[in-house]
Amino acid sequence: MPATVHSPAEHDSRLDLEPDSNSNPNPNPNSDSKSDSIGLDLPIRGMTCAACAARIEKVLNKLPGVAAGVNLAAERARVKITGTESGGAEVVAAISRAGFQVPRQTLELALEGMTCAACAARIEKVLNRLPEVEARVNLATERAHIEFTPGLGNAALFISTVEKAGYRARLVAGGTLRENQQEEKARREKAYRRELRQFVIAAALTLPLLAQMLFMFGAGFSGPASGGAAHAELPRWLQFLLAT
After folding, report:
1. Angle at CA 153, nearest 5°, toward 152 and 157?
2. CA–CA separation, 190 and 17 (whole Å)
């Protein structure tokens, strides 16, 4: 059964930075326990109608151990993975094969324990070994800037990776999360303005044809003696341009 779909407001407040409370922080299908479950909250780009959401939901629910629900308004997929047959990589790949995208996101970690450039290079190296992760570590600011694909990584995984390397890390509160939310909002507003502009242009080009049709109907009711319809008809070439 598809997972519970949350409202757009709930989805906007969470960008796959934290796993579910009962989830494995590493969305890797090679888990030791078959009872482990992974909860993913994925942004999806490219949906334009309910059919798109239904298509994604269908391909995801075909994956073994996957239960998914897609919210068109929020442009997000809520996915629960049970067992070891599927993982985050399979989910992201299935979405891509369906013709849609899981946009990359960024977050920032505050690091502790670095003493030299070699420490920064070591942390950068272990983070960049993770799939679909690009990490940059700044020794002076003691920060790690990480770009990743949701579903293949999250804050808990990155913090755990840094700690295994012998350092400490914590998620920088708010900073990059707000940036992700603002970028998503700006993208939606841009798409809305583009569609509105296309609608206005289409309506403006349709008005002359509509006016001609109304005049022709009026002339038809007044009888053939009026002869006004023929004089009011737009040139054929202009009708063709307006219609195309």
Report:
1. 140
2. 25
Distances (CA, A) of 59 to 40, 54, 169, 207: 16, 9, 37, 42
pLDDT by residue, tens only, the chain of 244 residues? 444 444 444 444 334 444 444 444 444 444 444 447 888 888 898 898 999 999 999 999 999 999 999 999 888 899 999 988 888 888 999 999 999 988 888 899 999 999 999 999 999 999 999 988 999 999 998 999 999 988 788 888 999 999 999 999 998 876 555 555 566 667 667 777 888 888 888 888 788 877 777 777 666 545 554 555 555 577 777 777 767 7
